[in-house]
Design brief:
Strands 19, 20, 21, 22, 23 and 24 form a 6-stranded mixed β-sheet that branches. Helix 12 packs across helix 13. The chain has 20 helices and 24 strands. The longest helix has 22 residues. The chain is an alpha/beta fold. It is elongated.
Length: 605
């Protein structure tokens, strides 16, 4: 809804109204004493005014550009005092206005039609502004992009279009000065490579929001800082978001927490295409598994849902940078899916700040100086041409691909790391921050080398099963030992350099699922490829004799069935665990006469 260009806005000032000013609107008069209407006597032609109600008027009209909904700020007097309420434009009809009498509005069945007529006509002359709740990059009519911050950043200024701080989720109003923030970067951040990387992460949200509109492979950048509370994780995350807005959990700042339902967090993210967010304290999340939520957050699209009318509800979308913190690894709360380790980056036990004094100095500045760096960054993009984003990103992709260690995920990781480095590159150009991009790249490469090990699902599962075997070794028979455990999981065989542990097939698959490995067959296939299994032919399993002929009842119990095969061998997964790995961890050593020569030597007999 736009102001009629042929009409000058009629600004009704409440204080001037109280001082005696009169505001004519067609045949209505708004005075301090009340709302009047002029009536002409048909016989004499004399004009007289009669009072309709206590004074009331529309102070301004506001349209939400995202929903197109219009509301008006209605000002009225009750008991000698003026009040303001926001109501929908659709409420300026007689039947709806009368419902507001409960708030003190002087409307009755006798005057509701006249009051409605006055307010409908007067609102056309009232000042008008447009607001938005969706932030970051937005495509306007005509196809050109603008960036929605506390106001719209574009080639051409849009002074009457502002962020709806009251109705939205974020407070983006900048505070303090850019110079003070930059001075803090030079004094407290420069030379600390992890912190410099976090500054890049703050600016990266702008690039993520932009690139996601043109490249399907670009989605939300999710970074989790894990480790104990003395590492400066939250300070680092708040430093990053101070680039774009208020780094606080108060007054709709950019620091949020994991303490909320999945739907609440996703609703908060919806429509965000360039403002970084902190999700603080992972331990506050009550979800047993975060797998689904992390996939949704990274993908930037909420799940399909139906509305009250059983129709497809519009899905919320977003693309930005999310910074998560917590003492716990975020992957400990997932199903061990490798795909998540490519979508979410975790930095574990990194000393983000050099000291408590360093953290305090950073917080002291960003508490009062924030938001200006992001505005200058975006304005530089418009001045340089938005193609600078694509060009810089492509440059750093090439560098990352050449530098990162070889892996099946190198290209995907390179695209994400390149966003961080491109953001730092453009920040250096626009703000002269002198971030050490080479050191940041080296830091990211070292982190990726560590993650490659963690990303190997087969290795993670093997370590998990090895620990499980050590903890529950009494559930396994030992070759040559006549003792049968009450709850038998399989059997162990000692060899020259390893122990062959035969797990009953259903037991191992069950334990892998309990450990968060949803598809045991994928894990076992990986083990077979790595040579960690003792197999028969092309199969991943083996036929192993675990129970003697006279132990068929125990066999039925272990297999969980009343019908067991006639042959004494059962289907097992036989994994090889090195003697060195198990040294000192196996208890209840068998009698030396029950072991072969190699095992006796290993045990020291």
């Amino acid at each position: 809804m736009k102001q009629d260009a042929t009409r000058q806005p009629l600004i009704i000032d409440q204080h001037r109204l109280e001082e005696g000013n009169t505001y004519p609107v067609h045949h209505f008069l708004l005075k301090h004493e009340g709302l009047y209407m002029n009536v002409t006597d048909k016989e004499t032609g004399e004009v007289s005014a009669f009072k309709i109600s206590e004074p009331m008027f529309v102070k301004e009209t506001v349209q939400n550009l995202d929903t197109k909904d219009v509301y008006v700020k209605l000002c009225y007097r009750y008991k000698g005092k003026f009040h303001e309420i926001d109501i929908g434009m659709g409420q300026l009809i007689p039947s709806e206005l009368i419902k507001l009498s409960g708030k003190g509005l002087d409307v009755s069945h006798e005057n509701n039609k006249l009051v409605a007529t006055f307010l409908r006509e007067q609102q056309k002359l009232a000042p008008h502004r447009e607001v938005y709740r969706e932030v970051g990059w937005h495509e306007e009519e005509g196809g050109h992009l603008v960036f929605r911050h506390h106001h719209v950043l574009a080639k051409e200024a849009k002074p009457n279009v502002v962020h709806d701080t009251e109705g939205g989720c974020f407070n983006l109003e900048p505070r303090g000065s850019l110079d003070a923030w930059k001075r803090m970067i030079q004094e407290e951040v420069k030379g600390n490579t992890p912190l410099e990387m976090m500054v890049c992460a703050g600016f990266s949200s702008v690039l993520v929001g932009y690139l996601s509109r043109f490249y399907d492979e670009v989605d939300t950048l999710l970074i989790h800082l894990a480790g104990d509370s003395t590492k400066g994780k939250t300070t680092a995350a708040l430093l990053a978001v101070s680039v774009m807005g208020m780094p606080s959990n108060k007054k709709k700042g950019l620091q949020k927490t994991w303490n909320g339902t999945s739907n609440a967090i996703i609703n908060m993210m919806s429509g965000n295409y360039g403002i970084p967010i902190v999700l603080d304290e992972l331990s506050m999340s009550h979800a047993k598994s975060l797998t689904s939520e992390l996939y949704v957050l990274a993908a930037g699209q909420e799940k399909s849902r139906l509305n009250d009318e059983m129709k497809q509800r519009k899905q919320g979308t977003w693309a930005t940078t999310i910074l998560s913190t917590g003492e716990q690894s975020i992957f400990e709360r997932t199903n061990q899916n490798v795909g998540l380790t490519v979508r979410a980056f975790e930095f574990f036990e990194i000393p983000w700040t050099s000291s408590a004094e360093n953290a305090d100095a950073i917080r002291k500045v960003i508490r009062n100086h924030y938001g200006h760096a992001g505005i200058a960054f975006v304005q530089y993009l418009f001045e340089s041409g938005l193609h600078i984003i694509d060009k810089t990103w492509e440059k750093w992709q090439t560098v990352c691909r050449e530098t990162l260690p070889d892996s099946p995920f190198r290209t995907r990781i390179a695209k994400k790391y390149a966003i961080l480095l491109a953001a730092g590159d453009i920040a250096n150009q626009s703000l002269s921050l002198s971030l050490d991009l080479e050191s940041i790249l080296s830091f990211l490469v070292e982190q990726e080398k560590e993650r490659m090990i963690a990303r190997d699902n087969g290795a993670k599962a093997f370590n998990y099963v090895t620990q499980l075997f050590v903890q529950h070794q009494n559930n396994f028979r030992r070759e040559g030992n006549i003792v049968s455990p009450a709850n038998c999981w399989g059997k162990m065989f000692f060899h020259r350099d390893h122990v062959e542990v035969a797990f009953l097939k259903h037991i191992l698959e069950q334990k892998l699922r309990e450990g968060g490995f949803e598809d045991p067959k994928v894990v076992i296939r990986s083990w077979k490829e790595k040579g960690w299994l003792v197999t028969e032919g092309d199969r991943a399993t083996k036929r192993t004799k675990i129970f003697e002929n006279y132990e068929q009842e125990e066999r039925k119990k272990a297999l969980g069935t009343a019908n067991v095969p006639k042959k004494l061998q059962d289907t097992t997964y036989n994994i090889k665990i090195s003697l060195e790995t198990l040294k000192g961890l196996i208890s209840e050593q068998p009698h030396p006469l029950e072991m072969d020569e190699t095992a006796r030597s290993w045990y020291g007999f």
